[in-house]
Amino acid sequence: LHKPTLRHFLNTQDFSKQELCDILQLMTLLKQARRDNAVPPLFKNKSVAMIFEQPSTRTRVSFETAATILGGHALFLSPKDIHLGAKESLEDTARVLSRMCDVIMARVNHHETVAGLAEHSTVPVINGLCDWLHPTQIMADLFTMQEHLPEGKTLSDLTVAFVGDATNVASSLMFACTQFGMTFKHICPERFKAPQKWIDIALNNCETSGGKLVITDDTNAVKNCDVVVADSFYWFGQEDEKDIRLSTFIPDYVVTEEMMHKAGPNALFMHCLPANDQRECTREVMESANSIIFDEAENRLTAQMALLVYFSHKDIAIPSQERK
Ligand code: CP
Prior knowledge:
Elements: H1 17-35, E1 47-52, H2 58-69, E2 73-77, H3 90-100, E3 103-107, H4 111-120, E4 125-127, H5 135-147, E5 159-163, H6 168-179, E6 183-187, H7 196-209, E7 212-216, E8 227-230, H8 242-249, H9 257-263, E9 268-271, H10 283-286, H11 293-312
Helix pairs in contact: 1-11, 2-11, 3-4, 5-6, 5-11, 6-7
The chain binds phosphoric acid mono(formamide)ester.
Phosphoric acid mono(formamide)ester binds near residues 129, 137, 272 and 273.
């Protein structure tokens, strides 16, 4: 695998299905190597600068741990610790970090910030969540679905139902699932449905991949889905809409045991976490035998290992494996 030009990981849409499959394959190899306590030091003497404008448990711990396991170092940089946006421009911060670090990872309030960092950085920038997208989460999600595929099925055979708000996880999942040829259903009240721009991107993916996009407010659409996904009903910056959001989504769009029963006996439950149990999903669903939320969380580490390796090397030999 040869990557001659500088690439950033802002959106899975910027990568072909084959490139995403290469990253999934790298995840498989690195997860096994971690199990065998034999992870090669592929990030040795390298560092990742991690800018966090919002709190994080999984993203921070997984990137920091991945850098350490791979023999490198991660720097946690909150707005309190660095000059970004106060005493220093985005452009200058990106240029300075590029001179010292090998990768920049940023969790930001607005997509423009991570895009601006990428514009001025001379090292790869990874989007660790913004108001529009959460691509590193989705690499973990695809990998977790792949680990739990029903007998004889491939990713493209899956039907995934995302129940709830048009969050950053919803958009990235909508894009990746349709790129992989899956059926993706966004089940959401009309008032909070995904912007047309997202729908157009996903429909375009479907034309190439043979996937299918369903946008509906009818929760009966979970019937016969392989995976049901829940996420928060409001996020940072939406606090003033909290009441209207909770009263619109609750109780109809809460993933309950009844809803999972409707999806089918083998339907799996996923959530990027943190979860507000008894809000977007019940604790019973989170703790059920079909819940794979903690495998999904663990695979954030698997994904970050692969992303740090993929983006810090120009040439990597990955046994290529095309996925259907
Ligand atoms: N899913 C996710 O991004 O978790 P954190 O907010 O804890 O990083």
